[in-house]
Design goal:
The protein is mainly β. It has 5 domains: 157 residues, Immunoglobulin-like; 79 residues, Listeria-Bacteroides repeat domain (Immunoglobulin-like, Sandwich); 56 residues, no CATH class; 73 residues, Listeria-Bacteroides repeat domain (Immunoglobulin-like, Sandwich); 72 residues, no CATH class. The chain has 4 helices and 29 strands. Strands 18, 19, 21, 22, 24, 25, 27 and 29 form an 8-stranded mixed sheet that branches. Strands 1-2-8-4-5 form a 5-stranded antiparallel sheet, with no helix packed on it.
């Protein structure tokens, strides 16, 4: 080790050899110094701490040298950092020396720091050593020790005096934080792979936040899951969907809302037994016909159901409509429509017809006429007695906004005017019709007679017999037929006063033709 202070610096290669040699030196009486004062402390929080050792020595009266060795043994759970070592020796005269790594050595794995130095006895002072260690957060207490061994040498007598001092420092184990568990109670619900009550999370610390939306959502037949309710927790609280862990275990209970629901039909100022319709939330129910509901209100008629009491801004439902039940309280209010009277007036006729009462929510159907008026036919109904306006018929519908009266409308039956101006035309048409009919009959008769005269001519046994003249009978038939036509033609011409010349010429010609 190096000699730190003094006028005559001598080499001191090894402490053990020097101490052995001193045993054989003659003893000299000199006043031994006081035992060095040694302290070991630590500072800092967390994983890294600083171990600090302070040794103070008083110089002896005799001239000599002091060999001192400072050993710091850190707890096995700590690991020393050699680069962090600081060693300073300060004399009583105020002289200070920084001791570099030539004065000390470390074994980080075993947690040992050893510092050795040699000073003159008249140079008493203070040795300060600091080193940083890590691993302080492990869950156990740390016990660190320091050992100061000092040997005083009287150069004149060779007498030696060995003194030692020790120090101890304990780093308390960090307090283990209290941990708590979060238990979920399904309250009749079910969750895959879980029982009715189970621990959802352990090792939770006080003040830890849990988002309730991140927790599982169980199910239960016939119910809606409405989240989790804080059952117990020793200071735990929930706010805006966030659980804050307190100072104890926490239990959350599932909240359920039944799907069974109902719709209330509020009388809305009317009288009658209150009606409710049972159903299931999210499903539809059918509303009753107002005519079948025994609600009543003077001067009004039940016209339907409204989502608002005044019926002005809400939705109006009628009988047979459907309404979907919600998670909220479902209420529909009776919609009371004012009533109006429709009166029928005979307007000059006879008879009676009853008045009809209708509400503003329905169409008024006009009744069949029961009035009569001699010499007149019924023509319809009108809201004005003189017929100015639209004419309605029985069965038509009208919307009433106030009491109203319909007046019967009458008209004279239609009478055909006398046929004086048309008698001559009728006569002419009758004559023409008779002539056309006679012509048709004459034509039919003529056609029938002509058909009979055109029957085939039969020349009897002379045809193709022994006296056959060699002419074909069909040829004779053709000429015979033609001759009959010629005879008729001649007769017609004779009747008209013709001289018959043409007929005779034709017969002459025909005879010549037959002679051939």
């Amino acid at each position: 080790m190096k000699r730190a202070f003094g006028k005559n610096r001598i080499p001191f290669p090894r402490l053990a050899v020097f101490m052995l040699a001193l045993l054989f030196l003659p003893a000299a009486a000199f006043a031994a110094p006081d035992r060095p004062a040694l302290s070991l402390t630590h500072s800092g929080d967390g994983d890294r701490v600083i171990l600090e050792c302070t040794a103070k020595m008083d110089p002896p009266e005799a001239e000599g040298r002091v060999d001192m060795t400072l050993t710091i043994q850190a707890d096995k759970a700590l690991k020393l950092d050699p680069s962090s070592v600081q060693a300073i020796y300060q004399t009583e005269d105020g002289e200070t020396k920084n001791l570099d790594s030539e004065y000390w050595e470390t074994d980080p794995d075993s947690g040992v720091l050893m510092l050795s130095m040699l000073v003159d006895t008249d140079m008493g002072g203070q040795l300060l050593c600091r080193v940083t260690a890590s691993g302080a957060e492990s869950q156990s207490a740390k016990t660190n020790t320091a050992q100061m061994d000092v040997t005083y040498y009287d150069l004149e007598t060779g007498e030696t005096t060995a003194l030692s001092a020790s120090g101890k420092d304990t780093i308390q184990a960090p307090a283990k934080p209290e941990t708590y568990s979060l238990t979920l109670d399904l309250a009749g619900g079910s969750l895959s792979g879980k029982g009715s009550t189970f621990v959802w999370q352990e090792d939770m610390s006080s003040g830890q936040l849990v988002n309730l939306a991140d927790l599982p959502q169980p199910s239960r037949d016939g119910y809606f899951f409405d989240g989790w309710s804080l059952a117990s927790g020793n200071g735990a609280r929930t706010d805006n969907g966030v659980l804050t862990v307190g100072s104890g275990d926490v239990t959350l209970t599932a909240v359920w809302t039944s799907k069974a629901d109902k719709l209330t039909l509020d009388r809305n100022g009317g009288s009658g037994r209150q009606i409710t319709i049972d159903g299931v939330t999210g499903e539809e129910v059918t509303l009753p016909d107002p005519a079948d509901v025994l609600y009543s209100k003077a001067g009004f008629k039940l016209g339907g159901w409204s989502t608002t009491p005044d019926g002005e801004e809400g939705t109006i439902y009628h009988g047979g409509d459907t309404y979907t039940l919600t998670r909220d309280d479902d209420v529909l209010y009776a919609w009371w429509a004012p009533q109006y009277t429709l009166t029928y007036d005979a307007n000059g006729g006879d008879g009676q017809m009853p008045r009809r009462v209708f509400s503003a929510s329905e169409e008024a159907v006009i009744s069949d006429n029961a009035f009569t008026r001699k010499g007149y036919d019924f023509a319809g109904w009108c809201f004005s007695a003189d017929g100015r306006g639209k004419i309605y018929q029985s069965g038509d519908t009208v919307s009433l906004t106030e009491d109203a009266t319909l007046y019967a409308q009458w008209e004279k039956p239609y009478e055909a005017p006398p046929a004086e101006g048309n008698s001559r035309l009728t006569l002419i048409l009758g004559i023409l019709g008779a002539l056309v009919a006679a012509g048709c009959i004459f034509g039919i008769i003529y056609w029938v007679r002509s058909r009979k005269e055109e029957e085939p001519y039969d020349d009897g046994p002379y045809d193709d017999g022994p006296y056959d003249d060699g002419y074909d009978r069909r040829e004779d038939d053709r000429f015979a037929t033609r001759e009959r036509y010629d005879d008729r033609s001649d007769r017609r011409y004779d009747d008209r006063g013709y001289d018959g010349r043409r007929s005779r010429d034709r017969r002459r010609h025909d005879g010549d033709y037959r002679d051939r």
